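The freezer alarm interrupted the setup, so I double-checked each line after restarting. Inputs confirmed:
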Amino acid sequence: MDFEFSVITESLPALLAGAKLTWIITILGIVGGMICGILAGLGRIAGTEALGEEPHGIFKPISVLIRYISSGYVETIRGTPIIVQAMFLYFAFPMLVKAVFDIDRFRIEALTAAVITIIFNAGAYIAEIVRGSVISVDKGLLEAGMSLGISRFQLIVYVIGPIAFRRMIPPLGNQFIISLKDTSLFIVIGVGELTRQGQEIMASNFRALEIWLTVAVMYLIMTTVLAWSLRRIEKKMKIF
Amino acid sequence: MSSIIELKNVCKSFGKTEVLHNIDLSIQEGEVVVVIGPSGSGKSTLIRCINCLELISSGELVVDTIKIPAERKKMRQIRLEVGMVFQQFNLFPHLTALDNVAFGPTKARKMNKLKAAEIARDLLEKVGLSAFQNKLPGQLSGGQQQRVAIARALAVSPKVLLFDEPTSALDPEMIGEVLDVMKNIAKDSGMTMVVVTHEMGFAAQVGDRLIFMDDGRIVEEGKPGEVMKNPQSDRLKDFLGHVKHH
Ligand SMILES: Nc1ncnc2c1ncn2[C@@H]1O[C@H](COP(=O)(O)OP(=O)(O)OP(=O)(O)O)[C@@H](O)[C@H]1O
Ligand SMILES: [Mg+2]
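Predicted 3D structure, all chains:
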Protein backbone atom coordinates (compact mmCIF):
# COMPACT_ATOMS: atom_id res chain seq x y z
CA MET A 1 0.00 0.00 0.00
CA ASP A 2 1.42 3.36 -0.94
CA PHE A 3 0.45 6.58 0.74
CA GLU A 4 1.11 9.65 -1.43
CA PHE A 5 1.24 12.78 0.68
CA SER A 6 1.26 14.94 -2.43
CA VAL A 7 -2.27 13.72 -3.26
CA ILE A 8 -3.46 15.47 -0.15
CA THR A 9 -1.70 18.76 -0.83
CA GLU A 10 -2.97 18.78 -4.40
CA SER A 11 -6.56 18.16 -3.43
CA LEU A 12 -6.47 20.46 -0.42
CA PRO A 13 -7.83 23.63 -2.12
CA ALA A 14 -10.88 21.79 -3.43
CA LEU A 15 -11.46 20.04 -0.15
CA LEU A 16 -11.10 23.28 1.79
CA ALA A 17 -13.64 24.92 -0.51
CA GLY A 18 -15.96 22.01 0.25
CA ALA A 19 -15.30 22.33 3.98
CA LYS A 20 -16.10 26.01 3.78
CA LEU A 21 -19.43 25.27 2.17
CA THR A 22 -20.16 22.59 4.77
CA TRP A 23 -19.41 25.12 7.48
CA ILE A 24 -21.65 27.77 5.93
CA ILE A 25 -24.59 25.37 5.54
CA THR A 26 -24.10 24.21 9.12
CA ILE A 27 -23.93 27.66 10.66
CA LEU A 28 -26.91 29.02 8.73
CA GLY A 29 -28.71 25.77 9.44
CA ILE A 30 -28.21 25.77 13.18
CA VAL A 31 -28.93 29.48 13.57
CA GLY A 32 -32.17 29.07 11.64
CA GLY A 33 -32.76 25.74 13.36
CA MET A 34 -32.50 27.41 16.77
CA ILE A 35 -35.13 29.99 15.84
CA CYS A 36 -37.33 27.32 14.33
CA GLY A 37 -36.76 24.98 17.26
CA ILE A 38 -37.48 27.56 19.95
CA LEU A 39 -40.73 28.53 18.21
CA ALA A 40 -41.85 24.95 17.65
CA GLY A 41 -40.66 23.81 21.07
CA LEU A 42 -42.59 26.55 22.84
CA GLY A 43 -45.43 25.97 20.38
CA ARG A 44 -45.76 22.37 21.48
CA ILE A 45 -46.39 23.50 25.05
CA ALA A 46 -48.29 26.71 24.25
CA GLY A 47 -51.05 27.35 26.73
CA THR A 48 -49.93 24.69 29.17
CA GLU A 49 -48.83 25.21 32.74
CA ALA A 50 -45.20 24.81 31.71
CA LEU A 51 -45.35 28.39 30.41
CA GLY A 52 -47.21 29.89 33.35
CA GLU A 53 -50.94 29.80 33.78
CA GLU A 54 -53.38 28.39 31.29
CA PRO A 55 -54.95 30.85 28.86
CA HIS A 56 -58.51 32.11 28.90
CA GLY A 57 -61.06 32.96 26.24
CA ILE A 58 -59.97 33.14 22.64
CA PHE A 59 -56.38 32.22 23.52
CA LYS A 60 -57.43 28.76 24.53
CA PRO A 61 -58.39 27.48 21.04
CA ILE A 62 -55.49 29.42 19.54
CA SER A 63 -53.02 27.69 21.81
CA VAL A 64 -54.52 24.31 20.92
CA LEU A 65 -54.07 25.09 17.24
CA ILE A 66 -50.47 26.17 17.81
CA ARG A 67 -49.80 22.94 19.68
CA TYR A 68 -51.19 20.85 16.82
CA ILE A 69 -49.22 22.69 14.15
CA SER A 70 -45.98 22.48 16.11
CA SER A 71 -46.45 18.81 16.89
CA GLY A 72 -47.33 18.04 13.29
CA TYR A 73 -44.16 19.70 12.12
CA VAL A 74 -41.94 17.95 14.64
CA GLU A 75 -43.43 14.52 14.02
CA THR A 76 -43.26 14.88 10.24
CA ILE A 77 -39.59 15.80 10.31
CA ARG A 78 -38.65 13.19 12.88
CA GLY A 79 -40.57 10.54 11.00
CA THR A 80 -38.86 10.97 7.64
CA PRO A 81 -35.18 10.62 6.61
CA ILE A 82 -33.35 13.89 6.07
CA ILE A 83 -32.20 12.69 2.66
CA VAL A 84 -35.85 12.33 1.59
CA GLN A 85 -36.59 15.80 2.96
CA ALA A 86 -33.75 17.27 0.90
CA MET A 87 -34.80 15.50 -2.28
CA PHE A 88 -38.41 16.49 -1.73
CA LEU A 89 -37.50 20.13 -1.30
CA TYR A 90 -35.09 20.20 -4.23
CA PHE A 91 -36.87 18.04 -6.80
CA ALA A 92 -40.50 17.65 -5.78
CA PHE A 93 -41.37 20.96 -4.16
CA PRO A 94 -40.74 23.07 -7.31
CA MET A 95 -43.02 20.76 -9.27
CA LEU A 96 -45.67 21.15 -6.64
CA VAL A 97 -45.40 24.93 -6.77
CA LYS A 98 -45.56 24.81 -10.54
CA ALA A 99 -48.70 22.73 -10.48
CA VAL A 100 -50.49 24.62 -7.75
CA PHE A 101 -49.55 28.22 -8.51
CA ASP A 102 -48.87 27.86 -12.20
CA ILE A 103 -45.44 29.48 -11.85
CA ASP A 104 -43.23 28.33 -14.67
CA ARG A 105 -39.65 28.89 -13.74
CA PHE A 106 -39.77 28.23 -10.04
CA ARG A 107 -36.75 26.35 -8.76
CA ILE A 108 -34.64 26.21 -5.65
CA GLU A 109 -30.87 26.44 -5.68
CA ALA A 110 -29.24 23.29 -4.35
CA LEU A 111 -27.43 25.30 -1.68
CA THR A 112 -30.64 27.01 -0.61
CA ALA A 113 -32.40 23.68 -0.44
CA ALA A 114 -29.57 22.34 1.70
CA VAL A 115 -29.74 25.23 4.16
CA ILE A 116 -33.53 25.08 4.41
CA THR A 117 -33.45 21.34 4.94
CA ILE A 118 -30.96 21.65 7.81
CA ILE A 119 -32.97 24.50 9.33
CA PHE A 120 -36.20 22.52 9.37
CA ASN A 121 -34.57 19.24 10.27
CA ALA A 122 -32.46 20.61 13.12
CA GLY A 123 -35.43 22.77 14.16
CA ALA A 124 -37.58 19.73 14.84
CA TYR A 125 -35.00 18.07 17.06
CA ILE A 126 -34.13 21.33 18.77
CA ALA A 127 -37.85 21.82 19.44
CA GLU A 128 -37.82 18.64 21.48
CA ILE A 129 -34.73 19.80 23.35
CA VAL A 130 -36.40 23.14 24.08
CA ARG A 131 -39.63 21.53 25.17
CA GLY A 132 -37.86 19.08 27.46
CA SER A 133 -35.78 21.76 29.15
CA VAL A 134 -38.70 24.13 29.60
CA ILE A 135 -40.87 21.40 31.11
CA SER A 136 -38.06 20.53 33.50
CA VAL A 137 -38.03 24.03 35.04
CA ASP A 138 -39.35 23.77 38.59
CA LYS A 139 -42.97 24.87 38.75
CA GLY A 140 -42.29 26.63 42.02
CA LEU A 141 -40.06 29.09 40.18
CA LEU A 142 -42.88 29.94 37.79
CA GLU A 143 -45.18 30.52 40.73
CA ALA A 144 -42.56 32.67 42.42
CA GLY A 145 -42.36 34.78 39.27
CA MET A 146 -46.11 34.99 38.84
CA SER A 147 -46.64 35.94 42.46
CA LEU A 148 -44.44 38.99 41.88
CA GLY A 149 -46.94 40.15 39.29
CA ILE A 150 -44.84 39.83 36.14
CA SER A 151 -46.38 39.09 32.74
CA ARG A 152 -46.23 35.75 31.00
CA PHE A 153 -43.82 37.20 28.45
CA GLN A 154 -41.48 38.36 31.22
CA LEU A 155 -41.81 34.99 32.89
CA ILE A 156 -40.64 33.26 29.73
CA VAL A 157 -37.81 35.68 28.97
CA TYR A 158 -36.40 36.26 32.45
CA VAL A 159 -37.18 33.09 34.37
CA ILE A 160 -37.94 30.10 32.17
CA GLY A 161 -35.58 31.09 29.35
CA PRO A 162 -32.30 31.41 31.23
CA ILE A 163 -32.89 28.37 33.42
CA ALA A 164 -34.01 26.18 30.54
CA PHE A 165 -31.23 27.40 28.25
CA ARG A 166 -28.50 26.16 30.53
CA ARG A 167 -30.00 22.70 30.50
CA MET A 168 -30.25 22.79 26.72
CA ILE A 169 -26.57 23.28 26.02
CA PRO A 170 -25.34 19.66 26.18
CA PRO A 171 -28.11 18.21 23.99
CA LEU A 172 -27.82 21.21 21.65
CA GLY A 173 -24.13 20.46 21.17
CA ASN A 174 -25.09 16.97 20.21
CA GLN A 175 -27.64 18.19 17.68
CA PHE A 176 -25.27 20.75 16.15
CA ILE A 177 -22.72 18.03 15.51
CA ILE A 178 -25.38 15.77 13.98
CA SER A 179 -26.50 18.62 11.72
CA LEU A 180 -22.95 19.29 10.59
CA LYS A 181 -22.48 15.67 9.63
CA ASP A 182 -25.91 15.58 7.98
CA THR A 183 -24.69 18.16 5.46
CA SER A 184 -22.71 15.34 3.84
CA LEU A 185 -26.01 13.88 2.64
CA PHE A 186 -26.52 16.87 0.34
CA ILE A 187 -24.19 15.08 -2.02
CA VAL A 188 -27.45 13.72 -3.45
CA ILE A 189 -28.68 17.13 -4.60
CA GLY A 190 -25.28 18.15 -5.92
CA VAL A 191 -24.14 20.65 -3.32
CA GLY A 192 -20.37 20.96 -3.50
CA GLU A 193 -19.81 20.42 0.19
CA LEU A 194 -16.91 18.53 1.66
CA THR A 195 -18.11 14.97 1.05
CA ARG A 196 -19.00 15.73 -2.54
CA GLN A 197 -15.64 17.36 -3.16
CA GLY A 198 -13.97 14.28 -1.78
CA GLN A 199 -16.12 12.05 -3.94
CA GLU A 200 -15.28 14.02 -7.08
CA ILE A 201 -11.53 14.02 -6.47
CA MET A 202 -11.69 10.34 -5.69
CA ALA A 203 -13.48 9.63 -8.94
CA SER A 204 -10.67 11.25 -10.88
CA ASN A 205 -7.58 9.90 -9.08
CA PHE A 206 -8.85 6.82 -7.19
CA ARG A 207 -6.81 7.72 -4.11
CA ALA A 208 -9.43 6.62 -1.62
CA LEU A 209 -7.15 6.38 1.42
CA GLU A 210 -5.62 9.85 1.20
CA ILE A 211 -8.86 11.58 0.25
CA TRP A 212 -11.22 10.00 2.77
CA LEU A 213 -8.66 10.30 5.52
CA THR A 214 -8.32 14.02 4.83
CA VAL A 215 -12.08 14.45 4.59
CA ALA A 216 -12.57 12.63 7.88
CA VAL A 217 -9.97 14.78 9.63
CA MET A 218 -11.62 17.93 8.30
CA TYR A 219 -15.00 16.85 9.67
CA LEU A 220 -13.39 16.02 12.95
CA ILE A 221 -11.82 19.47 13.17
CA MET A 222 -15.14 21.17 12.45
CA THR A 223 -17.12 19.10 14.96
CA THR A 224 -14.44 19.70 17.56
CA VAL A 225 -14.66 23.45 17.04
CA LEU A 226 -18.46 23.25 17.48
CA ALA A 227 -18.24 21.16 20.63
CA TRP A 228 -15.55 23.38 22.05
CA SER A 229 -17.52 26.60 21.45
CA LEU A 230 -20.53 25.17 23.22
CA ARG A 231 -18.42 24.14 26.15
CA ARG A 232 -17.12 27.71 26.31
CA ILE A 233 -20.67 29.05 26.46
CA GLU A 234 -21.59 26.53 29.12
CA LYS A 235 -18.65 27.57 31.26
CA LYS A 236 -19.36 31.25 30.79
CA MET A 237 -22.88 30.89 32.11
CA LYS A 238 -23.01 30.98 35.85
CA ILE A 239 -23.07 27.65 37.55
CA PHE A 240 -26.31 26.93 39.34
CA MET B 1 -62.64 48.74 59.42
CA SER B 2 -61.80 47.83 55.88
CA SER B 3 -61.22 44.24 54.97
CA ILE B 4 -58.58 43.72 52.35
CA ILE B 5 -59.39 40.06 51.76
CA GLU B 6 -62.96 38.84 51.74
CA LEU B 7 -64.10 35.27 51.07
CA LYS B 8 -67.79 34.44 50.99
CA ASN B 9 -68.94 30.88 50.61
CA VAL B 10 -65.83 30.00 48.63
CA CYS B 11 -65.47 26.48 47.26
CA LYS B 12 -62.52 25.09 45.35
CA SER B 13 -62.43 21.80 43.51
CA PHE B 14 -59.68 20.00 41.66
CA GLY B 15 -61.52 18.03 39.05
CA LYS B 16 -64.35 16.34 40.90
CA THR B 17 -62.88 16.56 44.40
CA GLU B 18 -63.85 19.61 46.39
CA VAL B 19 -61.01 20.57 48.71
CA LEU B 20 -62.35 23.87 50.12
CA HIS B 21 -65.95 23.85 51.30
CA ASN B 22 -67.90 27.07 51.81
CA ILE B 23 -65.14 29.17 53.30
CA ASP B 24 -66.12 32.49 54.87
CA LEU B 25 -63.23 34.65 55.89
CA SER B 26 -62.61 38.33 56.17
CA ILE B 27 -59.14 39.69 56.81
CA GLN B 28 -58.59 43.29 57.88
CA GLU B 29 -55.77 45.51 56.75
CA GLY B 30 -52.75 45.06 59.00
CA GLU B 31 -54.03 41.84 60.49
CA VAL B 32 -51.75 38.86 61.01
CA VAL B 33 -53.69 35.66 60.49
CA VAL B 34 -52.08 32.32 61.26
CA VAL B 35 -53.53 29.24 59.60
CA ILE B 36 -52.95 25.80 61.06
CA GLY B 37 -54.34 22.39 60.25
CA PRO B 38 -53.37 18.86 59.36
CA SER B 39 -51.80 17.95 56.04
CA GLY B 40 -54.26 18.03 53.19
CA SER B 41 -56.72 20.24 55.03
CA GLY B 42 -56.54 22.91 52.32
CA LYS B 43 -54.28 25.53 53.88
CA SER B 44 -52.09 25.96 50.84
CA THR B 45 -55.06 25.91 48.50
CA LEU B 46 -56.71 28.66 50.53
CA ILE B 47 -53.81 31.07 50.34
CA ARG B 48 -53.04 30.16 46.74
CA CYS B 49 -56.57 31.21 45.85
CA ILE B 50 -55.94 34.58 47.47
CA ASN B 51 -53.18 35.46 45.01
CA CYS B 52 -54.82 33.73 42.06
CA LEU B 53 -52.34 30.88 41.76
CA GLU B 54 -55.53 28.83 41.94
CA LEU B 55 -58.91 30.05 40.78
CA ILE B 56 -61.88 29.48 43.07
CA SER B 57 -64.65 27.24 41.78
CA SER B 58 -67.57 29.11 43.32
CA GLY B 59 -68.39 31.75 45.87
CA GLU B 60 -67.05 35.24 46.16
CA LEU B 61 -63.47 36.35 46.62
CA VAL B 62 -62.47 39.98 46.79
CA VAL B 63 -58.85 41.01 47.25
CA ASP B 64 -57.92 44.66 47.56
CA THR B 65 -61.35 45.63 46.14
CA ILE B 66 -60.84 43.47 43.04
CA LYS B 67 -63.31 40.66 42.54
CA ILE B 68 -61.74 37.36 41.51
CA PRO B 69 -61.75 35.81 38.99
CA ALA B 70 -61.03 38.92 36.99
CA GLU B 71 -59.41 39.63 33.67
CA ARG B 72 -55.73 38.78 33.37
CA LYS B 73 -54.47 42.31 33.92
CA LYS B 74 -56.35 42.69 37.17
CA MET B 75 -55.18 39.33 38.41
CA ARG B 76 -51.64 40.46 37.78
CA GLN B 77 -52.43 43.60 39.73
CA ILE B 78 -53.56 41.43 42.64
CA ARG B 79 -50.40 39.37 42.50
CA LEU B 80 -48.40 42.55 42.63
CA GLU B 81 -50.24 43.58 45.79
CA VAL B 82 -50.20 40.11 47.32
CA GLY B 83 -46.73 38.65 47.75
CA MET B 84 -46.00 35.04 48.52
CA VAL B 85 -43.28 33.19 50.38
CA PHE B 86 -43.00 29.49 49.64
CA GLN B 87 -41.95 26.49 51.66
CA GLN B 88 -39.25 25.68 49.10
CA PHE B 89 -37.99 29.31 48.84
CA ASN B 90 -38.15 29.20 45.04
CA LEU B 91 -35.39 31.72 44.51
CA PHE B 92 -34.36 32.20 40.89
CA PRO B 93 -31.24 30.03 40.74
CA HIS B 94 -29.53 32.04 38.02
CA LEU B 95 -29.71 35.36 39.85
CA THR B 96 -27.70 36.64 42.81
CA ALA B 97 -29.45 37.43 46.08
CA LEU B 98 -29.47 41.09 45.11
CA ASP B 99 -30.87 40.44 41.64
CA ASN B 100 -33.52 38.13 43.07
CA VAL B 101 -34.72 40.93 45.33
CA ALA B 102 -34.45 43.58 42.60
CA PHE B 103 -36.31 41.36 40.13
CA GLY B 104 -39.83 42.37 41.15
CA PRO B 105 -39.20 46.11 41.25
CA THR B 106 -37.52 46.19 37.82
CA LYS B 107 -39.77 43.73 36.01
CA ALA B 108 -43.17 44.12 37.65
CA ARG B 109 -42.95 47.73 38.85
CA LYS B 110 -40.80 48.90 35.91
CA MET B 111 -38.47 50.71 38.26
CA ASN B 112 -35.05 51.76 36.98
CA LYS B 113 -32.19 49.42 37.84
CA LEU B 114 -30.30 51.73 40.19
CA LYS B 115 -33.34 52.51 42.25
CA ALA B 116 -34.30 48.85 42.40
CA ALA B 117 -30.79 47.84 43.48
CA GLU B 118 -30.94 50.43 46.22
CA ILE B 119 -34.23 49.04 47.50
CA ALA B 120 -32.86 45.51 47.25
CA ARG B 121 -29.76 46.42 49.26
CA ASP B 122 -31.88 48.02 51.97
CA LEU B 123 -34.10 44.97 52.19
CA LEU B 124 -31.18 42.57 52.30
CA GLU B 125 -29.78 44.62 55.14
CA LYS B 126 -33.11 44.41 56.92
CA VAL B 127 -33.06 40.62 56.73
CA GLY B 128 -29.41 40.57 57.81
CA LEU B 129 -27.88 39.47 54.52
CA SER B 130 -25.92 42.48 53.29
CA ALA B 131 -22.77 40.41 53.13
CA PHE B 132 -24.41 37.87 50.83
CA GLN B 133 -25.88 40.08 48.14
CA ASN B 134 -23.66 38.75 45.38
CA LYS B 135 -24.13 35.08 46.26
CA LEU B 136 -26.25 32.77 44.15
CA PRO B 137 -29.07 30.91 45.93
CA GLY B 138 -27.12 27.67 45.64
CA GLN B 139 -24.39 29.19 47.79
CA LEU B 140 -26.75 30.12 50.65
CA SER B 141 -28.14 28.08 53.53
CA GLY B 142 -31.85 27.32 53.67
CA GLY B 143 -32.48 29.99 56.27
CA GLN B 144 -30.58 32.56 54.24
CA GLN B 145 -32.45 31.62 51.09
CA GLN B 146 -35.77 32.01 52.82
CA ARG B 147 -34.77 35.43 54.14
CA VAL B 148 -33.82 36.48 50.61
CA ALA B 149 -37.18 35.16 49.42
CA ILE B 150 -38.96 37.29 52.01
CA ALA B 151 -36.97 40.33 50.91
CA ARG B 152 -37.88 39.55 47.30
CA ALA B 153 -41.57 39.44 48.17
CA LEU B 154 -41.30 42.70 50.12
CA ALA B 155 -39.44 44.48 47.33
CA VAL B 156 -42.55 45.18 45.26
CA SER B 157 -44.14 46.74 48.37
CA PRO B 158 -47.19 44.51 48.46
CA LYS B 159 -50.16 45.18 50.71
CA VAL B 160 -50.45 41.55 51.75
CA LEU B 161 -47.88 38.83 52.31
CA LEU B 162 -48.79 35.16 52.21
CA PHE B 163 -46.51 32.58 53.78
CA ASP B 164 -46.93 28.88 53.00
CA GLU B 165 -45.08 26.95 55.71
CA PRO B 166 -41.99 29.16 55.39
CA THR B 167 -39.97 27.25 57.94
CA SER B 168 -41.04 23.67 57.24
CA ALA B 169 -38.17 22.92 54.90
CA LEU B 170 -35.55 24.35 57.26
CA ASP B 171 -33.16 22.70 59.68
CA PRO B 172 -34.28 23.45 63.24
CA GLU B 173 -31.41 25.83 63.95
CA MET B 174 -32.43 28.08 61.05
CA ILE B 175 -36.10 28.40 61.88
CA GLY B 176 -35.51 31.13 64.43
CA GLU B 177 -33.77 33.53 62.05
CA VAL B 178 -36.62 33.33 59.56
CA LEU B 179 -39.33 33.73 62.21
CA ASP B 180 -37.48 36.76 63.58
CA VAL B 181 -37.59 38.42 60.18
CA MET B 182 -41.30 37.67 59.92
CA LYS B 183 -41.95 39.05 63.39
CA ASN B 184 -40.16 42.26 62.49
CA ILE B 185 -42.28 42.68 59.37
CA ALA B 186 -45.45 42.17 61.37
CA LYS B 187 -44.39 44.68 64.02
CA ASP B 188 -42.69 47.37 61.95
CA SER B 189 -44.64 47.62 58.78
CA GLY B 190 -48.17 46.77 59.81
CA MET B 191 -48.26 44.44 56.85
CA THR B 192 -51.31 42.26 56.37
CA MET B 193 -50.02 38.72 56.70
CA VAL B 194 -51.56 35.30 56.23
CA VAL B 195 -49.18 32.68 57.57
CA VAL B 196 -49.59 28.95 57.24
CA THR B 197 -47.30 27.48 59.88
CA HIS B 198 -47.06 24.99 62.66
CA GLU B 199 -44.91 27.29 64.77
CA MET B 200 -47.32 27.80 67.65
CA GLY B 201 -44.94 30.13 69.45
CA PHE B 202 -44.95 32.46 66.46
CA ALA B 203 -48.74 32.25 66.27
CA ALA B 204 -49.14 33.18 69.92
CA GLN B 205 -46.61 35.98 69.74
CA VAL B 206 -47.56 37.86 66.58
CA GLY B 207 -50.85 36.38 65.40
CA ASP B 208 -53.95 38.52 65.71
CA ARG B 209 -56.07 35.59 64.80
CA LEU B 210 -55.59 31.85 64.58
CA ILE B 211 -57.52 29.76 62.11
CA PHE B 212 -57.73 26.01 62.39
CA MET B 213 -58.64 24.21 59.19
CA ASP B 214 -59.60 20.62 58.77
CA ASP B 215 -60.87 18.81 55.74
CA GLY B 216 -61.33 21.98 53.68
CA ARG B 217 -63.27 23.87 56.35
CA ILE B 218 -62.47 26.52 58.92
CA VAL B 219 -63.23 24.62 62.09
CA GLU B 220 -62.16 27.13 64.74
CA GLU B 221 -60.88 30.65 64.84
CA GLY B 222 -60.11 33.31 67.38
CA LYS B 223 -57.34 34.96 69.35
CA PRO B 224 -54.35 32.59 69.14
CA GLY B 225 -53.85 32.35 72.89
CA GLU B 226 -57.50 31.54 73.55
CA VAL B 227 -57.87 29.09 70.74
CA MET B 228 -54.77 27.24 71.86
CA LYS B 229 -55.80 27.24 75.51
CA ASN B 230 -59.42 26.27 74.97
CA PRO B 231 -59.75 24.18 71.85
CA GLN B 232 -63.42 23.36 71.32
CA SER B 233 -63.29 20.51 68.84
CA ASP B 234 -61.69 17.15 69.35
CA ARG B 235 -59.83 17.58 66.10
CA LEU B 236 -58.07 20.71 67.26
CA LYS B 237 -57.27 19.15 70.63
CA ASP B 238 -55.83 16.22 68.79
CA PHE B 239 -53.92 18.44 66.39
CA LEU B 240 -52.46 20.64 69.14
CA GLY B 241 -51.35 17.50 70.94
CA HIS B 242 -49.46 16.47 67.82
CA VAL B 243 -47.69 19.77 67.14
CA LYS B 244 -46.65 20.12 70.78
CA HIS B 245 -44.83 16.86 70.65
CA HIS B 246 -42.80 17.95 67.65
N1 LIG C 1 -53.19 20.84 41.96
C1 LIG C 1 -53.95 19.94 42.63
N2 LIG C 1 -54.64 19.00 41.97
C2 LIG C 1 -55.40 18.11 42.62
N3 LIG C 1 -55.54 18.07 43.94
C3 LIG C 1 -54.87 18.97 44.66
C4 LIG C 1 -54.03 19.95 44.05
N4 LIG C 1 -53.50 20.72 45.02
C5 LIG C 1 -53.98 20.23 46.17
N5 LIG C 1 -54.81 19.19 45.98
C6 LIG C 1 -55.52 18.45 47.02
O1 LIG C 1 -56.23 19.37 47.81
C7 LIG C 1 -56.20 19.01 49.17
C8 LIG C 1 -55.68 20.16 49.98
O2 LIG C 1 -54.32 20.36 49.65
P1 LIG C 1 -53.44 21.52 50.26
O3 LIG C 1 -52.12 21.44 49.62
O4 LIG C 1 -54.17 22.79 50.20
O5 LIG C 1 -53.33 21.04 51.77
P2 LIG C 1 -52.41 21.63 52.90
O6 LIG C 1 -53.30 21.88 54.07
O7 LIG C 1 -51.62 22.75 52.42
O8 LIG C 1 -51.50 20.39 53.23
P3 LIG C 1 -49.94 20.35 53.65
O9 LIG C 1 -49.88 20.64 55.12
O10 LIG C 1 -49.56 18.94 53.36
O11 LIG C 1 -49.23 21.34 52.82
C9 LIG C 1 -55.36 17.76 49.27
O12 LIG C 1 -56.24 16.66 49.35
C10 LIG C 1 -54.60 17.74 47.99
O13 LIG C 1 -54.37 16.41 47.58
MG1 LIG D 1 -49.56 23.07 52.06
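Quick read of the result. The pocket of magnesium ion (ligand 2) is lined by residues B 43-44, 164-165 (CB under 6 Å).
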